Each structure stands twice: as C-alpha cells, then as structure tokens.
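Q: Mind making up any chain with structure tokens?
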Amino acid sequence: MSPHDRAHGAAPSVPDPLPLPVVDNHCHLDIVRDDTSDAVGPGGAPGGTGAATSTERIADALATAAGVGVDRVVQIGCELESAQFTVAEVDRHPGMLGGVAIHPNEAATLGARGELADALAEIERLVDHPRVRVVGETGLDYFRTGEDGRAAQIESFRWHIDLAKRTGLALQIHDRDAHDDVLRILDEEGAPEKTVLHCFSGDMAMARECVERGYHLSFSGTVTFKSAQGLRDALAVTPLENLLVETDAPYLTPTPWRGSTNSPYLVPLTVRAMASTLSTDVTALCRALSDNAERLYGPW
C-alpha cells in the first residue's frame, strides 16, 4: 500500500493488543481531520471542531483503543472551544481525563486581538473541574508563529506554568523549534513538580537535560519514522520512569500508517517501536508507562 493510499484510503488496521494496558498521554479527540479543507485545529493543524464531533464517535474510538490495551486517554483542549468541549466530555467517558490551556499559536492570535487575558481567565475557570488533571498544552512554537507573536506566547507560557503550580496539576508543554527558550523559561519560573514535554522533539542532549530536571518525556508516532534516528537516540537515554507515550491524534500516525488519521488504538505500534529502541521487554515498558501516567495524573 502506498503512502497516498494510506492517507486517503481505509483506516489503519487494528494492531495486536498490548500485554498490559497503557495510557495515551495526549490526544485531541475533538478534532476531525479534513486535510482538503481550510479548517484549522489547535496550533494551525488541519482539522477543526464542530458538527462532526460527537460523544458517540469518541466513545467508539475509546472502545476500539481499550480493545488493544489503551484503556485510558488524556484528552487535550488547547483553544477555548476545545477546552470547553473537553470539560464536558470527561464526565461522559470513564477512560478519559482532560487537559485545558491556550496553545502557543492560539496565544499569539489572541494576543494580537487583545483577547488573551479573557481567554486565560476562562482556562482558569475550566481547570477547576475535578477530572481536568493537566494544564496544557502550553509552551512555545517558533515554527508557525513569527517574531511578532512570540511575546504573547511567552506571556501565556509563563502564566500556564504558574497555574500548574498553583493547582498542583501536571504541565504539558508544546515545544516546536524553541528548545532553548522552553528550558530557559522553565528554569526562570521554576518548573512544576509534574512537567511533561509532550511529543518530545529534542535530541539526546536535551533528553538528558530534561531527565536531570525530573521532567517526563512523551513520545509519539514520530519516533517510528525512518528519518527520526535523533528521536530514537533521545529515547534510548531516557529512563523508564521518565517515559510516556501518546498519539497526538489525529496527527503523527506511526509507521506504517504515516499520513492516515491517527487514533488511540494505534498506540501499540509506538509502544513496540519504543521497546525495540530501548531493548526492553514490551510488558515492562507497558507497566512503566501506565505507572508513570497514574503517578502524574492520579486514578482515572
């Protein structure tokens, strides 16, 4: 099957179940991909929330994932509509906890319109929900936002760091082409006790720095890509107790389905690739991934 067929044909097949259940540490089940439209989801990615989103569709996705051992997910809402949606959905699905924040690219847009302060106030209200266990995703994105939007991103990032510390919740960080500034700002503000680099994209040296600081590194399907040897090198120096796995669904689908719509049921492909890189037993890795998530977020 060609990559074109994968992107536009049937959904990826269901992988073999994992030997122990794990958590999809970061997904956006509110986003319905439509790569041929102009709809845009969090961070400027194709997709969007709206009429196609339904509790029933999400329930089906969660059931399929549970069937292969991905029995818990962290649903992330990182703009106001999706954050509000996330807070509503976590009460409907026992296997779902939530995270809410303003994505760095959204922060730049809101800052330019003078609306950032009001948006952050709404996030502070939403984070009080007992099944919201994450402040995130926040951070910095220098790939899509230029110099003129960085001040708003940094303001928003610092605010979210403070919110995570005040609430005792885990902080999930989006870092794209901004490694040095992300680490610098965490050092300046004082990182929360529970800090996660979502969809880790740094190199081996950065992984070692993060581990030294006690951060958790969450690896997505990108670690399976043929071109991603640097990510596998970073994974190889990360202890089991600092590891998480995620989809970032509906994006970053693991090999061999790169280009297709991602979903939590495909986590086993990433877990097995991670175990191979780490030269560790899949069962041991699953146990660590589950224990780490429960330690960070509490019981589902």
In short: The two ends are 38 Å apart (CA to CA). Residues 1-8, 36-53 have pLDDT under 50 and may be disordered. Residues 223 and 231 are 6 Å apart (CA to CA).
